TrEMBL record:
InterPro entries reported for this sequence: Pept_HybD-like_dom_sf (IPR023430), Peptidase_A31 (IPR000671)
GO molecular function, one term: peptidase activity
UniProt family annotation: Belongs to the peptidase A31 family.
Protein's UniProt keywords contain Hydrolase: yes
UniProt source species: Streptomyces sannanensis
Domain of life from the UniProt record: Bacteria
Entry protein name: Hydrogenase maturation protease
One GO term (biological process): proteolysis
PANTHER family: HYDROGENASE 1 MATURATION PROTEASE, HYDROGENASE 2 MATURATION PROTEASE
UniProt keyword list: Aspartyl protease, Hydrolase, Protease
Length: 265
């Protein structure tokens, strides 16, 4: 069994099979593993990332298939993601094929600023619904740096959900493909989609094609000392269900486009 880490694509070769995000494997912990790892022997899992520790050792993070919290694992949440060395994993036959396209769906916004909570509300609604294996839904809140890193972590496309004031009636939904100028200023602690994409580039990666599902807000406190207001306004809350349907439709179209691109000679 050989292993070879590619720092640019974050993959590792195990027995001649290239494993990366989305690859399916069987877990085979070594006999020296702890009792929890041994309890996972024979379980099927999906690779969420290939990483290196401080000593330069290659580790593969996986989320278990059949875990009710698997989406938390694919979203890099602690408790639903497990680390193994490459020799502790057996690639499944399907892993030899090209990995399925991966789409990140990210809710962004501050839940304490009125309608700015639109993104997190839609993400929470999506997480209550079954999603295709190609789709990873995460509520990033106001964690701009985390989102920037996620956008450079091997996704083929991304959909960001956010409040987007564009002059329409409150609750109006938009599908926006943001243009990121070369001179766009990155911002490590903000959640403006253009600046987050600029930050992703500054971190050394090229973000995937990214669309924004935006909602015209009705009430977002502003100013240096905004009043904290939890919960969406009455004019925006009905748009959550419509946004869920729009996100799922948009993601399905993106996956179809990616599959067609893969099958084009």
């Amino acid at each position: 069994m050989t292993e070879q880490l590619s720092g640019t694509t974050r993959t590792v070769s195990v027995g001649g099979v290239l494993l990366g995000r989305g690859s399916r494997v069987t877990v085979r912990p070594r006999q020296s593993a702890d009792i929890l790892d041994l309890a996972l022997d024979g379980r099927t899992a999906q690779v969420t990332s290939v990483e290196e520790d401080y000593d330069g050792r290659v580790l593969v993070a996986v989320a278990l298939e059949g875990d009710p919290g698997r989406e938390l694992g694919t979203g890099a949440q602690i408790g639903h993601r497990f680390y193994f060395t490459p020799e502790e994993l057996e690639p499944l036959a399907a892993s030899a094929a090209t990995a399925r396209p991966k789409v990140l769906v990210a809710g962004i916004g501050n839940v304490f600023l009125g309608d700015d909570a639109f993104g997190p509300e839609v993400a929470a609604a999506l997480l209550r619904r079954p999603q295709p294996d190609e789709v990873h839904v995460t509520d990033f809140g106001i964690r701009g740096m985390d989102l920037a890193y996620a956008l450079t972590d091997g996704y083929d496309a991304a959909v960001l959900i956010d409040a987007a004031p564009r002059g329409g009636a409150p609750g109006t939904l938009y599908v926006i493909e943001p243009d990121v100028p070369d001179d766009a200023a990155p911002e490590a602690h903000g959640m403006d989609p253009v600046r987050v994409l600029a930050l992703a580039r500054r971190l050394g990666g090229e973000p995937p094609r990214t669309l924004v599902i935006g909602c015209e807000p009705g009430a977002v406190p502003t100013g240096d000392s905004p009043d904290l207001t939890a919960g969406l306004s009455e004019s925006v809350r009905p748009a959550v269900d419509s946004a869920v349907a729009l996100v799922e439709e948009t993601v399905a179209e993106l996956i179809d486009e990616l599959r067609q691109k893969e099958n084009t000679p």
